[in-house]
Amino acid sequence: MHDMSTRARAVRWGVPAAAVLVVAGAIGAGPVIAAVQGEPQLPELTAEQLIGEVSAKWSGPGTLPPMSGTIVETASLGIPGLPAAPVGTSPLALLSGSHELKVWYGSADRFRLAIPGAMSEQNVIFNKGQAWWWDSAANTATKIKLPAEAPAPAPLPTAVTPPDAARQALAMAETDTAVSVGNDATVAGRAAYELVLAPKAAESLVRDVRLAIDGETLVPLRVQVFAKGAAEPAFEVGFDSITFAEPAPENFTFTPPPGAKVTEGDLPALTRQHPQMPAGDLALTGNGWTSVVTLPFDAAALKDNPILASARPVEGGRVITTKLVSALVTDDGRLLVGAVTPETLEKAAG
């Protein structure tokens, strides 16, 4: 274990503010993320040295280098009751299969994310105080209202991009975690270090989280989450291709095309990090790998949901178990979720 101050600095990397975009609209399977190709040779670093170098390089907000590329998110959670191939723009589509996202990043206030579809594309574009959400299938362009005090949304701890997911994983690793360096990997054709974070808590369903860190720029290129007892990652987000260069200016400009319906408002509800709910409704217990989120939940409203129908009865509620996440729906109207054993959720529910 390296010292906590070094790790705490590491979680303050600048990450693309484009993390506000949900990939719930992603459809169609993209190419699989580039796997190891040969054995890249990088200077040897200990885990403490690697985290220290990454922390020193990306300690401030908005410090990532200009880049563009294609990101692939792959989920194989083994959710009971989930159709083999969820379709459309349902959030269920994110819980299985592979989904592609294109990114152009110039700076903290100039970036673009695109979700390609079979015959359409959705985009969110931020360019120095102006923001648009463009849906080509619906032919709608929404001019996004931004807070007066900020030119772009603040970075959020989501797993939309590899740097975002790496930041979130390192924040979790501030608790009891074994940290090591694995074998060097090749991701998107680039040699990368592999930083391995393994929770020590027996209650955690996570075996380890593996961060592939670019050997030249130290930008996180891929994050893989492995469940205990599994040979393949349950969740993975990484670059399939990446170029470290200033994207062309036209990538950050947008003019609604003729005939498009133009409106002004917030990002669509599904693109926000959390559903809107009154303050205090969501509670967090535990910390790090054993965190449990509790929120109100109306099970009756989802009585025909195939996932809920497959839940296992327990005293005081029903449990849904996947490779990586457990959920407890209580009879008194609560939902408890965490990457922990069902027993841990039952204890948290009292």
Automatic annotation (TrEMBL):
Transmembrane segments: none
Alphabetical list of Gene3D superfamilies matching this protein: Lipoprotein localisation LolA/LolB/LppX (2.50.20.10)
InterPro entries, per database record: LolA/LolB/LppX (IPR029046), Sporulation_related (IPR052944)
Protein name stated in the entry: DUF2092 domain-containing protein
